[in-house]
Amino acid sequence: MADILLEMKKITKEFPGVKALKDVNLQVKEGEIHALCGENGAGKSTLMKVLSGVYPYGSYTGDILFQGQECQFKDIKQSESLGIVIIHQELALIPELTIGENIFLGNEQSKKGVIDWSQTVIQTKDLLKKVGLEESPDILIKHIGVGKQQLVEIAKALAKEVKLLILDEPTAALNESDSENLLNLLLELKRQGITSIIISHKLNEISKVADSITILRDGQTIETLEPGKDEITEDRIIKGMVGRNLSNRYPQRDSKIGETIFDIINWNVYHPLQQDRKIIDNVSLHIKKGEVVGIAGLMGAGRTELAMSIFGQSYGQKITGKIKKDGKEVEIKNVSQAIKQGVAYVTEDRKTYGLILIDDIKANITLPNLQQISQRSIINEQEEIITAENYRTKLNIKSSSILQKTENLSGGNQQKVVLSKWMLAQPDILMLDEPTRGIDVGAKYEIYSIINELAQDGKGILVISSELPEILGICDRIYVMSEGKITGELNREEATQETIMEYMTNIRGEKHADLEQAYTK
Amino acid sequence: MQTLSKLIQNNLKQYGMIIALLLIVLLFQILTAGILLKPLNITNLILQNSYILVLAIGMVLVIITGHIDLSVGSVAAFIGAISAILMVELNMHPFLSVVLCLLLGALIGAWQGFWVAYIKIPAFIVTLAGMLLFRGLTMIVLEGQSIAPFPTDFRQISAGFVPDFFGSGSIHIFSLVISVALSLIFVYKEVKDRKNQLKYHFNVLPKSLFIAKLVGVAVVMNGFTYILATYKGIPNILVILFVLIVGYSFMMKKMVVGRHIYAVGGNEKAAGLSGIKTKRVTFWVFVNMGILSALSGLIFAARLNAATPKAGNLFELDAIAAAFIGGASAYGGVGTVIGAIVGGLVMGVMNNGMSIIGLGVDWQQGIKGLVLLSAVAFDVFNKNKSSS
Fold first, then answer.
1. A247 vs B: CB within 8 A
2. Helix ranges, chain B (H)
3. What are the transmembrane regions (chain B) (predicted)?
4. How many CB atoms lie under 10 A from the CB of residue B223?
């Protein structure tokens, strides 16, 4: 049996009013990939923050043994000096600095305070080779994609002579192929003897790479599964996470599909800054009443750009094409016109584009709908409270009251607030962009149920998602996009992950290489 | 006991600045051996600070949208100069001149709002340019000279008092009537609001504290008016201020446009994607600031009874300090009109009190700086505590 690299014993961590961790035990063996699973708020990130010294010794109880030594970290520096490096979900890279500068940030290659640039470049090249990133060390971080940035983070960790690498949701923002790359890299690092802990919601990835899986629920260790000994399936993990069998991850719905309610015809959009770069290329699509339509595609295929350009031309320039609602052509030049026409758009990044985090649930829900609850521009506060309270109950938004600030809500509940806000607007067409990203399994189910209900009410729903099982699970019809074009349209019956993947990667080859180059320059 | 300390903690942020103001008043009342709250001095205090408070109302709106306006002092001076030219040199009717001046202020606000909202030049730069530009223009139109005196009617803005309709005894009775009526309205509104909040199970002050709050406000308000009434009654400028404070508070709290202003400052992108015309909101906030700068300039000119090239110097910094002391956030989205007023009064009382006890301007500046820093530090400290 392999040696134990890390042991956390009886870790208890309290926040004012809540016990985030209760007697949590975790054992990580040398040279393995250990997955940490659990719903949002189960305590995964808190546990990792205890381990890396973000929460210093003394603010929790319990013991941490690393390589057999007891550790009492006061800050991150101390844990890093032992080779424990954590890569957070929100990447800690500085966009305006180069790859090389970022990798050695805080760890500069210097002599007496003067930076040795040639050493920096040489070592950076070496590290980049190790993580399989073919970029020059002096490219700015802001000019490379999220997938590559994630690799830079790992290179940065390697520069610190990492022994235990902790990744918090590393693939949440990545598309399928970048995720694949990253997971392969983890396997490669494992071969080189680096142990890693990976926190992820994507169970298929976990079952692919993990050597053992520890499941947390409500701040407690539930179990540790090991392949070989235990049967590992996604259902088995989910059962541990939610404490019950979630027999169906996608709620059933009887589709009652009516007439076409929304038409997009020959839609063309150019890049907001680069005048001659076409982002959306002659896209036509339609949505029927009561229908859930999916848009699949790789990152950069133009899905978000398409939705945003439809939603009151919030993206791009030189937009041409027609929008028809109920067969009649309508003009939607800005967001308020879109809302008036009954079009709503739930954004991909709820923190940046969806919510006003410093405001409470009530103010967020009513923001696009203030006209509804006011008379002569004066807000009727009672009506506002009743409306907000109504949605809080209906969508089961877990919060102390409607006056709770949205920044203190978990991801799933934040998403429910965004959904409430657009449900209140009574749209006929609802576009949802990655509606379940970074949300735990239980909340996902609730969101799917809401989508189903809306469809049943005869609304037209458009779902953009990078998770193919999700698209397959909830949509009646699926469009596939690639490089700004619609490359395929599939019915629920004929769609499989394989066929969608084929359409997604449809127009590859020379043109794509050009684009890729244009992107990185 | 634990509940009481928790209660204090919860309400500290909301009422902290008001308590601080009362403590400062008390401190200077003692230090000045009672001069601070003498009727004449209180009247002076209001007149001295009115133009800063008017600016602070506009400034807090600008700060809530996430911007800043450095030009207000220069704009006030420029408008003061124009008003003098209109009234003194061209003998225009005061009322017409005031209207024209306010319109000009709106135009200046529109000019700056255009660059900030539509061209997306940072407000710091636009208004820094405005500060230089309008100071320069002031000197040009005044040719480096002061213009005086203003017509008497115009000076009534800053020098006049509400007339007493109930005869002219030693006490100004009409002022007291107004004050009692207003405090009754206040109590009625508060009780009604509380009932509503209880209906929805919101956290409210416990009954004893709530009554204490009502009694406290009523006593302070009526006591304050009583002191004024023993001198010449309510100054005209206080009426203007009262209308502005109530009006703008109502707008920010209860009206759709107020909500839009907070939303734009809180998260401009999310606000835009919620159908708010963010550029238009920003633009109008600057137009509003222009109008209030003009009003401030007029009040100052009327008080000084002259338009001078140096008028309004450093007004912008006092107005900005008032907003921040009053709890506005430099990141936007947070702040209240009433907070800015309280912040302005904190500065005003300190200025006045320190002058009475004979502290030099050098010390006054330094102490004001420290007060600004500690008020904001207190805010940040409070915020960190509540979020951890």
1. no
2. 2-31, 39-64, 72-84, 94-113, 123-142, 152-159, 173-199, 207-230, 236-254, 256-266, 268-272, 278-304, 315-325, 337-356, 361-387
3. 15-36, 42-63, 94-114, 121-142, 165-188, 209-228, 234-251, 281-300, 320-346
4. 12
Q: Chain B residues with CB inside 8 Å of A354's CB? A: 270, 273
| B2 touches A: beta carbon within 8 Å | no
Q: Give the CA-trace dihedral at B211, B212, B217, B219, to 10 degrees.
A: 110
The 10 Å CB-count burial string (b at 16+, else e) for B95-118 is eebbebbbebbbebbebbbbbbbe
Of residues B318, B305, B342, B316, the one with CA closest to residue B158: B305
Mutation target vs A (from B273, B277, B284, B334; most A CBs, 10 A cutoff):
B273
Determine the residue type at B140. Answer: I
Block means of pLDDT (10 residues each) for chain B, 388 residues, are 59 74 91 90 91 96 96 97 95 95 97 96 96 96 92 91 76 87 92 83 79 89 89 90 95 93 94 93 97 97 94 92 91 92 93 91 90 85 63
- Mutate one of B251, B274, B386 to test the A interface: name it (highest A CB count within 10 A): B274
The model's pTM is: 0.80
CB-based contact B254 A378, cutoff 8 Å: yes
| Number of structural domains in chain A | 3
The alpha-carbon gap from B120 to the nearest alpha carbon of chain A, in Å, equals 15
Which pLDDT belongs to residue A512?
Answer: 42
Residues A276 and A201 both lie in one domain: no
Q: Which residues contact A204 (CB under 8 A, 6 or more apart)?
A: A234, A469
Q: Kindly state whether residue A480 falls inside one of the protein's structural domains.
A: yes
- In this structure, the answer to whether residues A147 and A193 fall within a common structural domain is yes
Q: Is residue B267 less than 8 Å (CB to CB) from chain A? A: yes
On whether the CB atoms of residues B249 and B337 are closer than 8 A, the answer is yes
d(CA B384, CA B376): 12
The Cα-based distances of A432 to A40, A298, A426, B342 in angstroms read 21, 16, 15, 45
- Considering only the beta carbons, identify the residue of B202, B263, B277 that sits closest to A367: B263
* A338 neighbourhood in chain B, CB within 8 Å: 275
- Asked whether residue A247 is assigned to any structural domain, the reply reads no
Which residue in the set B196, B201, B333 is minimally distant from A358, CB to CB?
A: B333
| Average pLDDT, integer, range A459-463 | 94
Measured between alpha carbons, how far is A107 from A87 in angstroms, rounded to an integer? 16
Reduced 3-state DSSP string for A257-306: CCCEEEEEEEEEEECCCCCCCEEEEEEEEEEECCCEEEEEECCCCCHHHH
Give domain B35-160+257-379's CATH number out of 3.40.50, 1.10.3470, 1.25.10, 1.10.150: 1.10.3470
Contacts of B333 in chain A (CB under 8 A): 356, 358-359
Predicted confidence at residue A202, as pLDDT, reads 76
Q: Is B271 on the interface with A (CB under 8 A)?
A: yes
- Each residue's pLDDT tens digit, B81-90: 999 999 999 9
Same domain, A313 and A454: yes
Q: Which of A338, A363, A403 sits opposite B259 (nearest CB)?
A: A363
Domain containing A14: what range?
4-242
The predicted complex's ipTM stands at 0.83
> Would you tell me the crossing angle of helices B315-325 and B361-387 to the nearest 10 degrees?
30
Amino acid at B338: I
Nearest CA in chain B to A389: B200
A205 and A279: one domain? no
Chain A residues in contact with B387 by the CB 8 A cut-off are 408
| Domain-wise residue ranges, chain B | 35-160+257-379, 161-234
Displacement of CA B94 from its chain's centroid (Å): 24
- Contact yes or no for B83/B155 (Cβ under 8 A): no
Closest in A345, A359, A366 to B273, CB measured: A345
B330 in A contact zone (CB under 8 Å): no
